[in-house]
UniProtKB/TrEMBL annotation:
Protein name, as recorded: Uncharacterized protein
Keywords carried by this UniProt record: Ribonucleoprotein, Ribosomal protein
Superkingdom assignment: Eukaryota
Region span, Disordered: 69-99
UniProt record, GO biological process: translation
Organism encoding this protein: Oikopleura dioica
Any one Gene Ontology cellular component term annotated for this protein: cytosolic small ribosomal subunit
An MF annotation (GO) of this entry: structural constituent of ribosome
Compositionally biased tracts (Basic residues): 87-99
Amino acid sequence: MHFSYQGKSFNAENTDEVLSLFNEESYAVVNGRVIQPGFSLEEYGLTEGFQVEEVPRMLGGKVHGSLARAGKVKGQTPKVDAEEKKKAKTGRAKRRMQYNRRFVNVVPSFGKKKGPNSNS
């Protein structure tokens, strides 16, 4: 089966023959798919006259965004001292507060229950 690469025509029967034209530092790509070894060209879905492109291998993994700006927001935010909180109730008083919150002051509502920290 004939195919073209860099304007030249070649003949191959399987993907291994196509990959033999490329070195280890690059991928062979057809229609956005990387060619894998060990297939016949028909099995791989390639038709007569397909065009092969060479794409260089990239070192490392994918990085989203520039690492030069990492930590930018935290560095810009002014430090605010924590406010003093009143002492939490313990023992009987804490249990009484829980009981009142869960069973006494209950407002019947429709839909899903909201958590104790929801602001709606």
